[in-house]
């Protein structure tokens, strides 16, 4: 049986999926966020079902809870990436001749 910490590690490890999208950082941000959401969603209804309000489906509770936490985080990451100075800094750091 999985421990709670192992699924949490998988959730944050799923952020590494973003590395497969080196040419499109926004797509990588979305893919990593969705991967993280999936693992948190699964652990939410497997391990934390007892925290759902009485009479509420634990799957629905996990979906809503994780969407309200991870969704805004994803939007914030995309907004920060859209700032021109941030994009310029990321481009400069990804150029090996600059380093």
From TrEMBL:
What residue intervals traverse the membrane?
27-51, 63-83
Q: Does the keyword Transmembrane helix apply?
A: yes
Alphabetically sorted, this entry's keywords are: Membrane, Transmembrane, Transmembrane helix
One matching Pfam family, short form?
Answer: Thia_YuaJ
Question: Could you state a single Gene Ontology molecular function term?
Answer: thiamine transmembrane transporter activity
Please provide, in alphabetical order, the Gene Ontology terms of the cellular component aspect for this entry: plasma membrane
Q: What is this protein called in UniProt?
A: Thiamine transporter protein (Thia_YuaJ)
Source organism (scientific name): Caldanaerobius fijiensis DSM 17918
